[in-house]
Amino acid sequence: MNIESALIIYNKRAISNEIHVSIGVHEHFIYFFLLLLFSSPLFAQNDSIQQISAPSFNTSFQSEKIKKSFINEQEIHYSYDRKKVEKVAIINAGLYGSSMIGLYTAWYKNYPMGKFHTFNDLAEWQQMDKIGHSYSAYTMGKFSMEMWRHTGIERKKRILIGGLSGAAYQTVIEVLDGFSSEWGWSWGDIGANIVGSGLLMAQEFAWDEQKFQLKTSFHRKKYDEAILNQRSDVLFGKSSVERFLKDYNGQTYWMSAGIKSLFPSSTLPSWLQISIGTGAEGMFGATENIGKDNNGNVIFSRPDIKRYRQWYIAPDVDLTKIKTKRKGIKTALFILNSLKFPMPALEYSNKRFKWNWVSF
């Protein structure tokens, strides 16, 4: 069993007593960060990820010629290296294969398996889990795509292979869910995976850059009522890591766009972004704030707590635009750029606006 499988098993066991709790997005986060761990040495051996600016020309003919050759110039920056191709392929195949085998052997094998079936979970968790699926597919694909970029393979192959990797990995998990009596194939999850990978690849094909970036942030929730904290411990786990992976009340997902990237003539710094985020509050069950044990007995009932969505608008920082010659720092900034930088934000929820000096 590899590290990823062990963590996935631990997370699932933590919620096995809650009948209506969906698997959620935590296994995808685990895969993503494990992928970062394994592939960081590969990034460290190469030049950092960077945008190559085309030189300016006076004539429209020359400018058009440069636009057409822009992608080729950027790809030339990384010459084809067969050894790197093999290394990246082995890393991806090893992670995919071992995690799937370990996950099935240690978890799904212990639960009844039956006929393939579907499960409609669109109404659960204010759709925060679906947004998480899109984010995971986007982020895993983005990181994989950059790994392949460093091998120097042809651009279209890099985008397709890397871009589809996130959705492909999560689809395999969805198949296992489909044969498990405890869960089921979710078309909502599949749709969300496709949206995440599609957003990544569409931008890469169109602009060879991510003008609109998906990010996430988290704040640990603490409540004045002991029963709510106890309920959160049961549903989402006690540790901060478990809460980060499973507590949808503390998760926020963002779409950040670089102002200068959208408006090249702007004099604003290239690292400045504007970000729109969404989250949800008051969720102590998948569809309602009622919990039952395995015998159907009600063990938690708080229908008085309102479940509602939140919307945010805030400035953000594109960490990849920070200039540094240190390769390790550049790699770290690329990794951390998948997280939303804490900033003041204007929140809209419960039909009113609210100002937050710091939003995570």
Could you give a short description of this structure?
With 360 residues, the chain is α+β, with helices and mostly antiparallel strands. Helices cover 48% and strands 16% of the residues.
**Percent of residues in helices:** 40-55%
Q: Order of SSEs, N→C?
A: HHHHHHHEHHEHEEEEHEE
Mean pLDDT: 80
Q: How much strand? A: 15-25%
Number of helices: 11
Strand order of the largest sheet: 1-2-3-6-7-8
Secondary-structure content class: alpha+beta
Low-pLDDT residue intervals, each spanning 5 or more residues: 1-76
Shape: globular
Whole-angstrom Rg: 22 Å
Distance between the termini: 34 Å
The largest sheet is: 6 strands, antiparallel
When the domains are counted, the total is 1
Spell out the blueprint of helices and strands:
Blueprint: H1 3-14, H2 26-44, H3 60-76, H4 82-106, H5 128-149, H6 155-179, H7 187-207, E1 212-218, H8 226-236, H9 240-246, E2 251-258, H10 259-262, E3 272-281, E4 290-292, E5 298-301, E6 308-317, H11 327-336, E7 343-349, E8 352-359
Antiparallel strand pairs: 1-2, 2-3, 3-6, 4-5, 6-7, 7-8
What would you say this structure looks like, in words?
The protein has one domain (3-359). The chain has helices spanning 3-14, 26-44, 60-76, 82-106, 128-149, 155-179, 187-207, 226-236, 240-246, 259-262, 327-336; strands at 212-218, 251-258, 272-281, 290-292, 298-301, 308-317, 343-349, 352-359. It is globular, with a radius of gyration of 22 Å. Helix 1 (3-14) packs antiparallel against helix 2 (26-44) and helix 2 crosses helix 9 (240-246). With 360 residues, it is an alpha+beta fold. Strands 1-2-3-6-7-8 form a 6-stranded antiparallel beta sheet. It has a two-stranded antiparallel ribbon with strand order 4-5.
